[in-house]
C-alpha cells in the first residue's frame, strides 16, 4: 500500500491533525497581523470593490454598498431592492456616456490543498478494484470559475442582471438572467422579477466571503437526506417569478416566489447545462420576510449597528417517476412534496457581524426512499428530516480587512428508513471555516482581494458537499474528513 | 503532505502576502486627519446634535472612509478618486459652503441641515440618498464633516429661517408670483417656461468656476433641497451658497415669497399639483391676455 494511503487509513491521526491545525492557524494569524498592520497605516481608504459596472456608473466607492465585497450592507441592499437604482434621477442609461457598458468579470487564481479521508481507492494504483480505503490529497495552483456580470437599468424602474458563469474548464451556463420591473405603481412594495435568480436569502451564498472548496458553500443550503431523490438546494438559483417589496430603507422586506420545480434548470430539465434529467410540470413557492432595526449603543457612544432578523419557507415538490418513450425519460410525474423552513439573522455589534441561520427540512417518504409514488413504500420507509444551521462571524478591522469564521452543524433528524444499517447519524455534517480577506486595491473600476482560508468538514458516511474525494466513501459508517487550505487572489474589473 | 512540505507551503504563503502588501501599500492613501494648525475642530471631540441624537466625529470618520471618500476625497476637499468623472463636482468640505441650509446666506448650516442633506441626497447629481444608513450613522457623518473646516471652530451656524404659514393657493397668488418671476429676473436663468434655457443659463458657474445648470422646472419633480412648498420657499429665501442662485430674503416679503412658490409650481408640468391645475384652468380662459415672460415684458408679465 502506498505510503500516503497508509497514513490516511487512520483519519484521526492526532499527531498530524494537531500539527496541521497549529501551522494553519499560525498562517492565518500572521496574515491577519500583517494585513491589519498595513491596513492601519497606508492602505487605500473605503474603496471596497463592488461590481465595477455599478461603481463605474455612479462613481461611488464600492464600500458604499458592501460590508466587504461581495457581501451587501444595507445601503447596497436598498440599491439592489430599488432595481440597481440610487433614485437620484441618474439611474437611466441615458445618463451614461454611450461608451459605458455595464459589464464586469471576476475570477480567482488560487493555490489550494484538498485532503479527504475515508475514500474508496485502489489498494494498488491501477488495479481497478477499489479495494482500499485511503486519503486523497490534492494540491497545487488552480483557477476558480469565472463570472461575467452585466446588470443595471434598461429604463427607469426596469432593471436586469445577466450573469454567464463558467466552471474552471470554461463550461458556461447562465447563473442568473432576469428582468425586474421596479416600483410598480410608484410603490417600493411592488417589484416583479422574472427569470433565473437567487432566492431572497437573508444570508446570501452568492455574495459571501469564503472561496475554498469546503468553506465556499453553506453546507445546509445544499443538504438533502442521504439517499433522497430530492435534489433541492436552498442556495441554488431557481427559475420563475418573484414578487418582492421593501420599505424605503429596506428595513422591512418580503418576497413571494413561484418557481419551476426543477432546481433552476433550463430547457425543461433539472440542470443549467446539458445532461439534466427532465423536469416536471409543477411549481414551488418560496416565502421570505425580514425586519431590521437599529440597536442603540451605550450612552455617549454611537449605536451598535443594524440588526436584521428574518424567516423563510420553501414549499416544493419533486417527481418520483417519469413519463417515458422507449424507456427514455420525458417528463417528471407523480410529484411528492417537501419543505424547508428556517430563520436567520444578520446582527451587528460595532465592527463584529454575526450571522446565525437555522433550517428544518422535511421530505415526503417517497422522495426519501426514491421510489415511484404509484408503488407501495418499501418496508421501514419514513419521511426523512434534518435540521441544523450555522453561525458565521465577520470582524471588520476596516472596510478593507475582514476576518471570518463559521461553524456549521447539520443533523439528520429522521433517516429515510427506520431499518438503516448506517446508523441514525448517517449524513450528519460538522464544519468549521476560518478565513481572512484583505482588499489591497480597491478602485471604482477594479479590485483585488487576497483570500486565505482553512476549512474542515466532517461528514458521517457520505461524500462532502464540496465534492472533494473520489466520489465513493470507503467505510460508509465512518466519518469522512475533508480539509481545504486556500490562498487566492480574487479580482474583478 | 509531510510536515516539511506543509511548512514550506506556509512560508511561501506568508511571503506572498508580504510581497503583495509591500507592493501595493506604497501607492495608496487613507483618510487624512484635518490639519490641527488650521484650527479645525478635533475629530476626537467634535459632535453633532440632531433631534436628540448625538453624532461623534470619530465614528463618522470610519463611515466617511467607507461611504464618502471616493467622491469627497481623503482630505474632504471634493478631490476624491471619482471626482473627475462627476458632474456636478462633489462638495469641498474644507470651504464649509453648503447649498441646502435653513440659515441665511453666507452662514454655516445647522447640524440638522447637513443631516437632512445626507438623508435626502441631491437629485440629478451623484449624491444619493443615504437614508439606508441609520440615524446615528448619519449624525456621526455630520459631526465628522464639520472637522474639515476651521469655520466650524470659529463660527456658529446662522439662525434658522422662520417660515410663515403658507398662504392660500389662489389664482391671484399665482399671477402675483408670475409678476415676481419676471421682476426678479428668475427667467434669465430658469427660462420663461422654467426650461432652464434663459439667456444666462449657459454662462453660469459655481463658486469654483465649474459650469452649472439652473434647475429645470419642466422636467424636475424634486428640488435639490427638498420637494415641498416649504423647501422651495426656503431655497430662494436662503439661496444656494456656492451656486449662482442668490438669496432673496432681503428682496421680497414672506407673502410675496409664497406667491412665487405658487407660480413656480405651475412650471412643473411633469408633476401634477394643485397650482398647476388652477393655472391651466385660468390659462385656458385668459391665456391670450397674458404677456409673455421675458425681455419684452419689462413693465410686468401680467
How do the SSEs of chain A run, as a string of H and E? HHHEEHEEEEEEEEEEEEEHEEEEE
Average residue pLDDT of chain A: 87
Number of domains of chain A: 1
SSE-based structural type of chain B: mainly alpha
Describe the structure.
The complex is a heterodimer of chains A (493) and B (302). Chain A is built from 5 helices and 20 strands. In chain A, a hairpin with a 2-residue loop joins strand 16 and strand 17. The longest helix of chain A is centred in the first third of the chain and has 29 residues. The N terminus of chain A is likely disordered. By secondary structure, chain B is mainly alpha-helical. Chain B has 2 domains: 119 residues, Cytochrome Bc1 Complex, Chain D, domain 2; 127 residues, Orthogonal Bundle (Cytochrome Bc1 Complex, Chain D, domain 2). Chain B has 11 helices and 2 strands; from the N terminus they run αββαααααααααα. Chain B has a two-stranded antiparallel ribbon with strand order 1-2. In chain B, strand 1 and strand 2 form a beta hairpin. In chain B, helix 9 crosses helix 10. About 3% of the residues of chain B have low confidence.
Amino acid at each position: 500500500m502506498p505510503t500516503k494511503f497508509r497514513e490516511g487509513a487512520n483519519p484521526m491521526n492526532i499527531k498530524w491533525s494537531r500539527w496541521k491545525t497549529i501551522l494553519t492557524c499560525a498562517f492565518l494569524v500572521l496574515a491577519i497581523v500583517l494585513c491589519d498592520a498595513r491596513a492601519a497605516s497606508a492602505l487605500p481608504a473605503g474603496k471596497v470593490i463592488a461590481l465595477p459596472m455599478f461603481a463605474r456608473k455612479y462613481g461611488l466607492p464600492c464600500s458604499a454598498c458592501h460590508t466587504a465585497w461581495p457581501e451587501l450592507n444595507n445601503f447596497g441592499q436598498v440599491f439592489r431592492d430599488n432595481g440597481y437604482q440610487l433614485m437620484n434621477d441618474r439611474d437611466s442609461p441615458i445618463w451614461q456616456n454611450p461608451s459605458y457598458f455595464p459589464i464586469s468579470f471576476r475570477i480567482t487564481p488560487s493555490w489550494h490543498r484538498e485532503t479527504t479521508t475515508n475514500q474508496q481507492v485502489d489498494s494498488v494504483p491501477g488495479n481497478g478494484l477499489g479495494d482500499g480505503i485511503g486519503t486523497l490529497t490534492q494540491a497545487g495552483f488552480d483557477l476558480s470559475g469565472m463570472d461575467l456580470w452585466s446588470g443595471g437599468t434598461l429604463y427607469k424602474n426596469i432593471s436586469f442582471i445577466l450573469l454567464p458563469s463558467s466552471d474552471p474548464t470554461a463550461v458556461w451556463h447562465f447563473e442568473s438572467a432576469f428582468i425586474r420591473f421596479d416600483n410598480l405603481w410608484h410603490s417600493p412594495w411592488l417589484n416583479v422579477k422574472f427569470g433565473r435568480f437567487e432566492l431572497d436569502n437573508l444570508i446570501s451564498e452568492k455574495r459571501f466571503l469564503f472561496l475554498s472548496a469546503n468553506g465556499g458553500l453553506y453546507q445546509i443550503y445544499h443538504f438533502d437526506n442521504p439517499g433522497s431523490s430530492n435534489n433541492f438546494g436552498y442556495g441554488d438559483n431557481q427559475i420563475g417569478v418573484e414578487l418582492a417589496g421593501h420599505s424605503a430603507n429596506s428595513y422591512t422586506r418580503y418576497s413571494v416566489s413561484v418557481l419551476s420545480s426543477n432546481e433552476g434548470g433550463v430547457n425543461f430539465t433539472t440542470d443549467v447545462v446539458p445532461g439534466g434529467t427532465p423536469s416536471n410540470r409543477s411549481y414551488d413557492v418560496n416565502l421570505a420576510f425580514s425586519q431590521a432595526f437599529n440597536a442603540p449603543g451605550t450612552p455617549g457612544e454611537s449605536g451598535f449597528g443594524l440588526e436584521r432578523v428574518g424567516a423563510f419557507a420553501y414549499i416544493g415538490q419533486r417527481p418520483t417517476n417519469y413519463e417515458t418513450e422507449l424507456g427514455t425519460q420525458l417528463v417528471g410525474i407523480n410529484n411528492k412534496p417537501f419543505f424547508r423552513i428556517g430563520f436567520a439573522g444578520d446582527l451587528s455589534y460595532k465592527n463584529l457581524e454575526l450571522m446565525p441561520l437555522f433550517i428544518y427540512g422535511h421530505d415526503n417518504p417517497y422522495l426519501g426512499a426514491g421510489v415511484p409514488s404509484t408503488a407501495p413504500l418499501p418496508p421501514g420507509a419514513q419521511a426523512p428530516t434534518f435540521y441544523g444551521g450555522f453561525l458565521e462571524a465577520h470582524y471588520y478591522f476596516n472596510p478593507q480587512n475582514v476576518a471570518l469564521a463559521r461553524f456549521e452543524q447539520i443533523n439528520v433528524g429522521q433517516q429515510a428508513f427506520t431499518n438503516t444499517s448506517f446508523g441514525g447519524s448517517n449524513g450528519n455534517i460538522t464544519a468549521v471555516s476560518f478565513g481572512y480577506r484583505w482588499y489591497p486595491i480597491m478602485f471604482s473600476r477594479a479590485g483585488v482581494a487576497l483570500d486565505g482560508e482553512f476549512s474542515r468538514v466532517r461528514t458521517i458516511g457520505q461524500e462532502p458537499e464540496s465534492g472533494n474525494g473520489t466520489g465513493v466513501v470507503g467505510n460508509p459508517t465512518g466519518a469522512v474528513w475533508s480539509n481545504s487550505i486556500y490562498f487566492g487572489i480574487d479580482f474583478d474589473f | 503532505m509531510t510536515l516539511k512540505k506543509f511548512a514550506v507551503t506556509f512560508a511561501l504563503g506568508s511571503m506572498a502576502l508580504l510581497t503583495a502588501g509591500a507592493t501595493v501599500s506604497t501607492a495608496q492613501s487613507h483618510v487624512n486627519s484635518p490639519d490641527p494648525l488650521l484650527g479645525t475642530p478635533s475629530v476626537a471631540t467634535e459632535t453633532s446634535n440632531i433631534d436628540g441624537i448625538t453624532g461623534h466625529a470619530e465614528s463618522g470618520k470610519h463611515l466617511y472612509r467607507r461611504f464618502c471618500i471616493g467622491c469627497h476625497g481623503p482630505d474632504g476637499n471634493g478631490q476624491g478618486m471619482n471626482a473627475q468623472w462627476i458632474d456636478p463636482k462633489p462638495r469641498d468640505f474644507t470651504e464649509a459652503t453648503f447649498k441646502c441650509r435653513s440659515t441665511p446666506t453666507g452662514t454655516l448650516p445647522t447640524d440638522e441641515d447637513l443631516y437632512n442633506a445626507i438623508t435626502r441626497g441631491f437629485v440629478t447629481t451623484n449624491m444619493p440618498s443615504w437614508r439606508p444608513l441609520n440615524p446615528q450613522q448619519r449624525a456621526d457623518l455630520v459631526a465628522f464633516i464639520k472637522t474639515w473646516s476651521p469655520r466650524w471652530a470659529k463660527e456658529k451656524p446662522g439662525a434658522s429661517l422662520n417660515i410663515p404659514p403658507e398662504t392660500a393657493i389662489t389664482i391671484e397668488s399665482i399671477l402675483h408670483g408670475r409678476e415676481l418671476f419676471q421682476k426678479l429676473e428668475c427667467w434669465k436663468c430658469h427660462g420663461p417656461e422654467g426650461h432652464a434655457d434663459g439667456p444666462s443659463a449657459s454662462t453660469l458657474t459655481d463658486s469654483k468656476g465649474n459650469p452649472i445648470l439652473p434647475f429645470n422646472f419642466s422636467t424636475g419633480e424634486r428640488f435639490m433641497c427638498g420637494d415641498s412648498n416649504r423647501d422651495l420657499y426656503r431655497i430662494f429665501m436662503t439661496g444656494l451658497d456656492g451656486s449662482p442662485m442668490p438669496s432673496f430674503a432681503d428682496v421680497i416679503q414672506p407673502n410675496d415669497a409664497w406667491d412665487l412658490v405658487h407660480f413656480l409650481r405651475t412650471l412643473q408640468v411633469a408633476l401634477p399639483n394643485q397650482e398647476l391645475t388652477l393655472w391651466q384652468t385660468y390659462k385656458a380662459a385668459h391665456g391670450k391676455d397674458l404677456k409673455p415672460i421675458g425681455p419684452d415684458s419689462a413693465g410686468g408679465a401680467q
